[in-house]
Amino acid sequence: MKLKNAVFAALAAVCACGCVREDDNAIRMITEATFPPYEFLRGQEIVGIDVEICRAVAKTLGKEFKCETVDFDSVIPAVISRKADLAAAGITITEDRKKNVDFSDPYVRTGIVMIYKKSAPYAKAEDAKGKRVGVQGGTTSETYVLEQLGQEPERFRSPAEAVAGLKAGRVEFVLADIDPAKNCVKGEDDLAISDFVTSEEYAVAIRKGQPELLKAINDTIARVKADGSLAKWIAQYTEEADKLKEK
Ligand code: GLN
């Protein structure tokens, strides 16, 4: 079933910046474009902070840039199986993932938050124990519900779908990374978000054993942090994603 989903996701993937195929002249990014402001769709085009970072890496290497979107749980497998070179999808560095991929230096410190209805407030983990908690499949939010709350989460394909489930009463809480969570609750007067539930860092993931590529990514991240590009992209794409939500 999982494999079938992955195949469907790959077939259905929106291919806005060019199709991802083995190519020595190109850097192929794999992402999951339902995660504003890090990656989202502007019409058919995949845009966002992570896309800019990976585009800058391609530029550092003097290569063309391509990008494709799949379900989140297919992002890391895509770099392991060489379907893509860079995985960037608001991916949190975890010890478990480090067993399968190498991570770049982190480019953002962040964390997950609980999204709740103001009519049923959330203050601490115990409030969600035994309740239906929605998450995006394959994420650190899923791990938190499994390991910290000790229960099965309700899995959705995106934070926005999980929040739709919250509004429809399918789940009582949603756990998601703070930036997409903020985007989801924008304009939703009955919803609110909690303080940070975890502290996490995002990085670019690549297939193990590629020190030169890793260095190019780390050099690029250091440069876009130092010259203000990263801060500019964060501001620009947060504003654009918020405007898209308002429509
Ligand atoms: N940061 C979270 C994780 O790595 C969620 C990422 C995402 O949903 N795109 O699991």
Brief sketch in words of this structure:
The protein has 247 residues and is of the alpha/beta class. It folds into two domains: 14-108 and 201-246, D-Maltodextrin-Binding Protein, domain 2 (3-Layer(aba) Sandwich); 112-198, Periplasmic binding protein-like II (D-Maltodextrin-Binding Protein, domain 2, 3-Layer(aba) Sandwich), CATH 3.40.190.10.
Question: SSE layout and pairings?
Answer:
Blueprint: H1 2-12, E1 26-31, E2 40-42, E3 45-47, H2 49-60, E4 64-69, H3 75-80, E5 86-87, H4 95-98, E6 101-103, E7 108-110, E8 112-117, E9 133-136, H5 140-147, E10 154-156, H6 159-167, E11 173-177, H7 178-185, E12 191-196, E13 200-202, E14 205-207, H8 211-226, H9 229-246
Parallel strand pairs: 1-4, 1-5, 9-10, 9-11
Antiparallel strand pairs: 2-3, 6-14, 7-13, 8-11, 8-12
The structure holds glutamine (GLN).
Glutamine (GLN) is lined by residues 32, 35, 72, 89-92, 136, 139-140, 177.
Structure description:
With 247 residues, this protein is of the alpha/beta class. It has two domains: 14-108 and 201-246, D-Maltodextrin-Binding Protein, domain 2 (3-Layer(aba) Sandwich), CATH 3.40.190.10; 112-198, Periplasmic binding protein-like II (D-Maltodextrin-Binding Protein, domain 2, 3-Layer(aba) Sandwich), CATH 3.40.190. Helix content is 37%, strand content 23%. A five-stranded mixed beta sheet has the order 10-9-11-8-12, with helices on both faces. A three-stranded parallel beta sheet has the order 4-1-5. A two-stranded antiparallel sheet has the order 2-3. A hairpin with a 2-residue loop joins β2 (40-42) and β3. α2 packs across α8. The chain is globular, with a radius of gyration of 18 Å. It starts with a helix and ends with a helix. Mean pLDDT is 92; it is low at 1-19. Bound molecules: glutamine. Glutamine (GLN) is lined by residues 32, 35, 72, 89-92, 136, 139-140, 177.
